[in-house]
Write a structure and sequence with these properties.
- The chain has a 7-stranded parallel sheet, sandwiched between helices.
- It contains 13 helices and 7 strands.
- About 7% of the residues have low confidence.
- It folds into 3 domains: 49 residues, no CATH class; 212 residues, P-loop containing nucleotide triphosphate hydrolases (Rossmann fold, 3-Layer(aba) Sandwich), CATH 3.40.50; 65 residues, no CATH class.
- It is α/β, with parallel strands linked by helices.
Length: 330
């Protein structure tokens, strides 16, 4: 596709803000395009989106947990509750399959649910291949999250499944929800070992399994007793059954309670600036290594600089990249 055929970023930004599905789909495609002209237009697109929506509006939720915990079923159940509450929902589902072979993380049930709301534009789902990205999320997730926040009340990122190092979601969501599976000790071990950053909410899915679910919930609550996340939020643990639909309203209420808490403590915009700084630093680290980071002033200094800046992640990344290359030549 020739550069002239690429979409106009300002028209796309207007369409995204109006929740036009075609404009949103084209915007996400543009953000996924690595060609230089596409990258330039993508940066313009992000810079044109309404800043107040990106900084303070919507709710960016991450759902993670081991494979088989029922994250997709839980996402489907949450969508039904949010739609009953007249909230619009955007989903970024990180798919473990390759973009060549295809495959859908969320399955037929969620696709059909989304189809039911297509006429209203109330639900929009984008599936992404993780492309082997270390950390559990593909590089495009943060820029795409910004575009989705400009359009929807709730934006949910579902990971491929957490492992000991796949914790990037905790650095990219207002509220991180960890889904535990009954009779599996992985969740408790991750928390006890400090491998995983403390999520904002722990959910034991498949509560209909009875004793096994209750035992896991008790173990999680014991582990979390008097435990707070770094910002001071006390982490709750809930039991739900996505297939039976029990506990989903309470889960949605608790997710909203965390967002309200962030707003009351003036942390929402601060956290999102930290997310963007983390995203930029990770990209710089991947391209230039630790030496490059030191050459730019060190990780702590860069992080402080980035959290005080405004602008699109692509513009900020490119400015630092240019600065490194200029320093390298001197």
């Amino acid at each position: 596709m020739a550069a002239r055929a690429l979409p106009d970023p300002e028209m796309l930004a207007n369409g995204v803000a109006a929740r036009d599905r075609a404009a949103l789909a084209r915007s996400l495609n543009l953000l996924d395009d690595k060609r230089p002209e596409a990258r330039r237009r993508a940066a313009h697109l992000l810079a044109t989106l309404p800043a107040d929506k990106l900084d303070r509006s919507g709710h960016l939720i991450g759902i993670t947990g081991p494979p088989g915990a029922g994250k997709s079923s839980l996402t489907s159940a949450l969508i039904q509750v949010w739609r009953q509450r007249n909230l619009s929902v955007g989903i970024l589902a990180v798919d473990p399959s390759s973009p060549v072979s295809g495959g859908a993380l969320l399955g037929d049930r969620l696709r059909m649910l989304a189809h039911d709301h297509d006429a209203e534009g109330g639900v929009f789902i984008r599936s992404l291949a993780c492309r082997g990205e270390y950390g559990g999320l593909s590089a495009e997730v943060w820029p795409m999250s910004l575009a989705m926040l400009a359009a929807f009340d709730v934006v949910l990122i579902e990971t491929v499944g957490v492992g000991q190092k796949e914790i990037d979601i905790s650095k990219m969501s207002d509220t991180t929800c960890f889904v535990a599976q009954p009779a599996s000790g992985d969740s408790i071990q991750f928390l006890k070992a400090g491998i995983m950053e403390v999520p904002h909410l722990l959910v034991v899915n498949k509560a209909d399994m009875g004793t096994a679910a209750r035992k896991t919930l008790t173990e999680l609550r014991t582990t979390l007793k008097k435990q707070f996340d770094p910002d001071g939020w006390q982490v709750p643990a809930l039991a739900v059954s996505a297939t039976k639909g029990t506990g989903i309203d309470k889960l949605a209420d608790t997710l909203e309670s965390h967002r309200v808490w962030l707003v009351e403590h003036d942390l929402l915009a601060t956290r999102r600036k930290r997310f963007q700084a983390e995203w930029i630093l990770k990209r710089l680290r991947e391209e230039f290594g630790r030496f490059g980071i030191e050459r730019l002033g060190g990780e702590a200094g860069l992080f402080d600089e980035l959290t005080r800046r405004h602008g699109s992640p692509f513009d900020q990344y490119d400015a630092l990249r240019d600065r490194f290359l200029a320093n390298w030549k001197t």
